[in-house]
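Job type: complex structure
Entries:
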Amino acid sequence: MKLLYPLICLFLALPAWAQDEAPHGDPVAGVVLSLAIILVAAKLGGHLATRIGQPAVLGELVFGVILGNLPLIGFHSLEYLKTDASIDMLAGIGVILLLFSVGLESTIGQMLQVGASSLLVATLGVIGPFALGWGVGAWLLPEHSAYMHAYLGAALTATSVGITARVLRALGKSQSKEARIILGAAVIDDVQGLLILAVVSGVISAANTGGALSYLGIGLILFKASLFLVGSLVIGSKISPRLFSLASRLETHGVLLAVGLGFCFLLSWLASAIGLAPIVGAFAAGLILEDLHYRDFKDRGEHSLEKLVEPIASFLVPVFFVLMGLRTDLRSFAAPGVLGLAAALTVAAIIGKQLCSFGVLGKGIDRLSVGIGMIPRGEVGLIFANIGLTLVIAGERIVDQNVFSAVVVMVIVTTMMTPPVLKWSLERNAKKAG
Amino acid sequence: MKLLYPLICLFLALPAWAQDEAPHGDPVAGVVLSLAIILVAAKLGGHLATRIGQPAVLGELVFGVILGNLPLIGFHSLEYLKTDASIDMLAGIGVILLLFSVGLESTIGQMLQVGASSLLVATLGVIGPFALGWGVGAWLLPEHSAYMHAYLGAALTATSVGITARVLRALGKSQSKEARIILGAAVIDDVQGLLILAVVSGVISAANTGGALSYLGIGLILFKASLFLVGSLVIGSKISPRLFSLASRLETHGVLLAVGLGFCFLLSWLASAIGLAPIVGAFAAGLILEDLHYRDFKDRGEHSLEKLVEPIASFLVPVFFVLMGLRTDLRSFAAPGVLGLAAALTVAAIIGKQLCSFGVLGKGIDRLSVGIGMIPRGEVGLIFANIGLTLVIAGERIVDQNVFSAVVVMVIVTTMMTPPVLKWSLERNAKKAG
């Protein structure tokens, strides 16, 4: 592996050379060089994270943090990546594809089946962190508005159970009751988190344009968001099978992928047009589409939509995670209170989710493991923080550099702590039972 | 299929609504809506083209022309697509992936094997159209510079044999001597076309910054371009197996795709950094990479790089073709001489390639079919024309809207005429032989 290091140094120095280069070149050359750097960083980070038993996405994030803080050791040639419009746009498409993939993994039917436990676990797991996060904001950042405190609470709500699922699988517990409750709750959790995001963002937008925080206004946003979700799920499920059956008659290559992506992009835009985040639409699109809808394509031997989207997501999603890392300025931790905020947010995120244990109905279920399994935050926390960077109220950004860095720390710690703690808890329970 | 038409009209009207919408939304929402429109247009166009026995890419191009000329019937909401920076960038990445895929389909070894006939056929097939194209420019556009005439010649050189390959396959002639000569020549042809593009673009850039058209300068560019191609092929072939063997030890998902794309992007940027078009680097990267280099990945059951790049290309390449169509302004054909220029260029492109027949060595080979099989232009002509749109000399664009439209007509006609004419020629020869 030693050959890698000189290669990497050479690689990282290229943009400096690029900036000295003749500006008459094709601008796409600069973009693909940035992409090459990001892809290599993502895979090296993913590798190292996997080696120490962590999810790859954590390594991508941490390698992004490293690249973004190279100026601390006097290396400035990657600074442009933080604000590059093309990379930002590609990361935005990456997040849409990520939520689309997450949605594709579950179906509406599965969501309806997971039952009372999951719904209760998810709801408590949203209320707990939301309240605690709001409280941490009010306590540590009293000079900021209540909007900002609410946003902080919202950023703590959504669970990212990819890592939990992997630990459960490694311990042969994938089919356990605990696993089904956690995975079911995580999907409901995503929906609830997106609803909260819609409400909080909507209230902030309204307040910024002079409107007041009326209950009617909140109700209206919640109604709009629910209507969009339920409406797109109901209408989408009716239209989707016909759409794909119609599309399957098109005699050209790549129709399934094009129609699937087109559907996802259209709903993303629609969500944005009615004031929600585009990811809400992408997630809804993923939930709606089921293998059954495009069986005409599968019958003639084409790959499933999930398989087709995978390489595109694996190309663009790391751009998002590395970019989030890049935007985490380690110097912000020198600012007074930021480390404290990061610690308090992390504790709020962990304790808040322990409320989930009370949502487990029935006996003989390992409640502690359910609460621990819901801890990791991952992508959704980052997406919230990133959207917060663009929201402004009374000339003040809802999420500033310091808060963004604190959220990144919260995501990293909650994700890293889950595998060992969950393993300990599951084994403790097995001993008790055995 | 009738349900499609109201759906399409609704769809096309969305951007008008989008522009009235609140500007505070996520900018990525506008980009994905554009992508959805482009993907649907591409697949509908591809379908109709396939139905009438034409290559899908032609339908994508023609549907782009239709979308781009909707203002003629008073519909203006898609006008922004022609100049949208994000779409232009995504199309640029699409072209790089297209040339990478083309390169991946052949190996350096195959190129060295195709033998004297292919080399001779390719060389004559580049000289003929280049000279005739230059001549057409000098004849019909005498008010423009010689640089522009040379560029016009260069745009006629490269063959796009995808359509020829498909006709040969349909007639059971894939393994014939004619097929091998044509396919071999097309690859060499691509290399020669890229070299000519490098020389002509370089000379134009030099002339624009005050330099003169010296033989030394041309020699230098040709030397640089050859050095890049040969150098990257030689060094790349040495490094690539080690790079992939090293990368195969990385324990995370999507490494093969990331390293393959990273390699392609790095060479694209390197080509651009020494003054060549990024596509030259992408093509070289594709030629270098062979299945053998990443057998460690394949041994553990991963898909080949070609298969992994396919969905990404099938997402982004149509963006390029539709955009090229969008930029073709049908009104330019009303300008005096444009239809004549289109006709003359088309004739030059067809006749120029008939020189190929003289390059066929050996007896009993259907020379006429070889010449006809080399006629289609397709993507490379469009790429040249598109690069020409960005080249300026003495304040005048090398390729203006009128010339661009004429080149698009040449591409469409040469591609459409090949299947029926080639079929006639092959059957005529079979009758003679039988």
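Summary: Residues 215-247 of chain A form the longest helix (33 residues). The first strand of chain A starts at residue 392 and ends at 393.
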